[in-house]
Amino acid sequence: MKKLTMVAFAAAAFTALSCSDDDNNTTNNNATVSGKWMLTAVTASHAVDGNDDGVSSTNLITEGGACFTDSYLQFGANHTVANFLSAPMLGDACFTAEADGEYSVNGNKVTVTVNYEGDNDTTVYTQNGNTLTALVPDFYEVEVTVNGQTTSDSIDATLVFTKQ
Which segments constitute the Lipocalin-like domain (predicted)? Predict the structure, then answer.
């Protein structure tokens, strides 16, 4: 039987470079981005059973617990951004990390660059109304155990933030 267990992942994965949509909407500007955006959906590229309930799902908020829903982006004045990540670890604990950075807006693309532990990480989000969406490659790792043999695998995820 296959058993999947979520393990902690680096906050840098939260800001991996991505760009998945070629739409261009030049009516967006910095004023429409300013404010707090909460993480409202995390969809994995493959179904996992992160909560060991016997049911696999691509909904990582369901599989990983409520930790994800504490994550947010806070867009401020002068193109500043705060990136707060809360993600599940083994057990019921949440891993948290915060990184500050800068953002720019070009059409409906919002480029966020944050510095986490000395490394600059960039994510390109697509804005559609009150949502920001990004496909993040290698978002987290899962341990897969089959017949007593455990290996790790990286899973991509689509993140959706909703303006508050």
Answer: 34-133
